Amino acid sequence: MSHDLNLPGSPSTPAIQSDWQSGRLAMQGDSYPENSYELFSQVIDWVEAFLERESRSLTLVLELVYLNTSSVKAMMDIFDLLEDTYQGGREVAVEWRYDPRNERIAELAEEFKEDCSYPFAILPLEVGS
Amino acid sequence: MNLLSLRDNYLQQRIMLCFNGPISRSLIEEIGHALRNYLNSQSAAPSSAMDVFAVYIEMTQNIRHYARLQDYGEEEATATIAVARDGDGRYLVSAGNLVEDADGQRLVEAVESLAGLDADELKRAYKQQLRRPRDEAATSGAGLGLIDMARKSTRPLEASLQPLSSSQSFFSLTATI
To answer: ipTM score here?
Structure first.
């Protein structure tokens, strides 16, 4: 058992929740902190710890809206960790949910997906008009 | 102070939002918030609004990052930022700051080298830069941000360098969306 993350989020940082028990990590909102490494290093630490100590599957559920380039780099590091794990024969998955009115985030998710061979779903959220 | 001529100048250049002064992390957020609200109220296409915001963030964070690396004091660390529309309704995002001459030259060359790339080449350059080791990427500075801005622009980025003193210049960058 490890400490789960439960970060409330701010205008420039996403809300982040991890659930060790169910093997889920979720993030919602905008991500454009000046120092994205500071924010994401705790997320990367959690993912690494989970992958090391558990043999269960891990699912990322993302509702990220805007990412600055340094957040994109940090997310790529996380997706690469998942790729290594998947190549080692373990189940991992990403679900990226987005507002269909914002095609830019779907395009970004597609570019991430290009470099991943594990299940990576990009799902439009249902929105009221 | 002649505010009326300032106002006329803004109107003439179709400047919707402008800032000049020391830029902080929280100011970047506040101005960004105002920019998003403004774009929404103008019924800008969501993808254009997103691109304008993204370019604004990369430009201002690059300026903050550079001023920190140079250990600039408040006066040297000021940024000049303007968001305008051109006659065809496209958005122009511009930002300028003081730089050391050699860095300015390097930046202008980097912008010029991106100008010749098409969308696929820019995407390849972006992915390549994304996968460079963090230390290496840090010393080259602004690499990923510049490519990202170039990808979001409908025209090549425009950079200029104007000398301010014997060793420093004013670097300005404009993206068209």
So the answer is: 0.92
Q: What is the pLDDT of residue B140?
A: 45
Q: Which residues of B touch A125 (CB under 8 A)?
A: none
In chain A, the domains with their CATH numbers are 6-124 (3.30.750.24)
The C-alpha angle B165, B22, B108, rounded to 5 degrees, equals 50
Contact A81, A87 (CB under 8 A): no
Inter-residue contact A92 to A118 (CB < 8 Å): yes
For residue B36, what is the enclosing H or E element?
Answer: helix B25-41
Bridge partners, B98 (sequence order) = B170
Q: A48 vs A82, B68, B149, CA distance in Å?
A: 9, 31, 32
Cβ separation B57–A68 shorter than 8 A: yes
Q: Does A80 touch chain B (CB under 8 A)?
A: no
Task: Say yes or no for a CB contact (<8 Å) between B130 and A73.
Answer: yes
Measured in degrees and rounded to the nearest 5, phi and psi for residue B77 equal -90, 20
Q: Are B32 and B57 in contact (CB under 8 A)?
A: yes
How many structural domains does chain B have?
1
Q: Do B54 and A68 touch (CB under 8 A)?
A: yes
Q: A101-129, pLDDT tens digit by residue?
A: 889 999 999 999 999 999 999 999 987 64
Mean pLDDT of chain A, nearest integer: 94
> How many Å lie between the alpha carbon of B87 and the closest alpha carbon of chain A?
25
* CA nearest to A104 within chain B: B47
Banded model confidence at residue B59, pLDDT cuts 50, 70, 90: very high
Which residue type is seen at A100? P
